[in-house]
Amino acid sequence: MRQESHLMLLVIAAFLRALRDLCVRHFRRNFVRNQENLVGRMRGIPLISSHLRENVSRGRLDRAYCKYQSISHDCRENQILFAALVQCIRYLLRQPDIVGTEALWHWSSFCRTTLNGVSLQRVTSDFFNGLRYSGTFVHYRKPHVLAKMILRSLGSDPRGEMSVETSEIPPFAICTYELFERYTEVLLRGRYGDALWAGYKDRNLGPYDLHGNKARDNGYVIRPDFLLKTGDGKYILDCKYKSMAKAIQGREL
To answer: Is the whole-model pTM more than 0.85?
Structure first.
């Protein structure tokens, strides 16, 4: 299997994990707009022009063409996730030689059951317009970002042919200096173990001490990338990720 397929599989794994966490605790319903020709009743706002065209002109005075809202899980927020989920399943079915996808199939099966009843739609850019990630829908932001990446790579219409030419390289970005810091941490922990303290983004800049507790003065503090305590002393370590050209230029200056 080519290297590009591993990249696509990585995005699919990240999406299925995020979608699984969403379905476990934060799956929500939302208001959807409906237009229906009701019989013997009215609901919401009557659409006069449609009512005259569909009912009055045909002598169907027992009906009323109305527009109303209802709460349903078949909303745009869930239709985006369902379309991306179907594309993930179709991609996995086309890669039968992939090893170690048992967890992916388990997550996709669980999410497919949770999203049962959501209509399968062709997701366009208009689906993301007007979405609000606040309140109970704040947990939809990350799955939607990953879903957009999948739909752009595998195709926006899960009912049509899957895009083969663009399915190999998904749009993604890697924070290289963060990746270098984590690589350095692995090397240091292999030698020093728990004697090493690593300052991640969520605890090396903010009102927290070295143990992750909130500082008493509530002031912002800056911590280095690593703190090392060994038998012969204490050391402050800082990672510097630079390109070779900049490093050579700095030496010459």
So the answer is: no
Average pLDDT, the chain: 81
Among 72, 95, 125, the domain-final residue is: 72
Domain annotation covers residue 99: yes
Instruction: Kindly report the three-state secondary structure assignment for every residue of the chain.
Output: CCHHHHHHHHHHHHHHHHHHHHHHHHCCCEEEEEEEEEECCCCCEECHHHHHHHCHHHCCCCEEEEEEEEEECCCHHHHHHHHHHHHHHHHHHCCCCCCCCHHHHHHHHHHHHHCCCCCCCCCCHHHHCCCCCCHHHHHHHHHHHHHHHHHHHHCCCCCCCCCCCCCCCCCCCCCHHHHHHHHHHHHHHHHHHHHEEECCCCCCEECECCCCCECCCCCCEECCCEEEEECCEEEEECCCCCCHHHHHHHHHC
